Amino acid sequence: MKKHDTILKITQGAMIAALYVVLTWVANALGLANGAIQVRFSEALCILPVFTPAAIPGLFVGCLLANILNGCVIWDIIFGSLATLIGAFGTYFLRKTKFVFTLPPVIANAVIVPFVLRYAYGVGDAHWYLVATVAAGEIISVCILGMILKVGLWKYRKVIF
């Protein structure tokens, strides 16, 4: 990879991380970023690996920073960020599918985050209830908002990415 390409990828990743942090802060200010039902606008960015692999570390770092800045407990910082990383990798590997690429972040968060909510935060709801609510929030964030974002960016993908 040429030096210019490396700088471009690092810059793209940093911009994605910054966007993730800001969008999570907005969702948190509205009371939507944490808890059993989470609609993080930032999770819509999980479709960006469709456009560039630079989104993978950008999403991970953004989620890590957002969780730290929002005062999340260490287990949420670690495992919530890993869920986003796993979802981003899955999206990248499924990027050539029409809709299936939206599912890895939903599945990763629906599997991991309920354990964080129960054991790190002491949320007393039933495990499968938490799976359903986390999945619902991710479906809104990734499958709906993320697809809207993808459609909006598609025309400009060669310019932006």
TrEMBL record:
Q: What is this protein called?
A: Transporter
Record's keyword annotation contains Transmembrane helix: yes
Q: Report keywords, A-Z.
A: Membrane, Transmembrane, Transmembrane helix
- Any one Pfam family here would be QueT
The lineage's top-level taxon is Bacteria
Matching entries from InterPro entries are given as: QueT
Q: Which residue ranges run through the membrane?
A: 12-33, 45-68, 74-94, 101-121, 127-149
Lipid metabolism keyword on record: no
